[in-house]
Design brief:
Elements: H1 4-28, H2 40-73, H3 91-96, H4 104-107
Helix pairs in contact: 1-2
Length: 108
Amino acid sequence: MVKPDEIKQKILEEISKTEKLIEEYKDFTKPIAPDNAIGRLSRMDAIINKSVIESTQRQTELKLQNLKRILSMYGTEDFGKCIKCKTKIPLNRILYRPESLYCVNCAK
């Protein structure tokens, strides 16, 4: 049986990990100087990689936003309920994806 404090701790740990990830992504998404002597193809690869990382960073920032929202709901009657249909989100889903705002059916 999982204790409520364990759920809160899991959310806090996810927030911490996610914030660190965002900082790492910021290092990889710095502009690529045109005078960088890495060659034309290598420069194109670097630009493509930067775009992929920027997309991942946006998704990670959304995850952080959701985690903070979930944490703000902790201890209220809305915690653990789908924000769309208001049904209870299974505990295993909360533990696996603490940023989940929706039940499995509404997340589709």
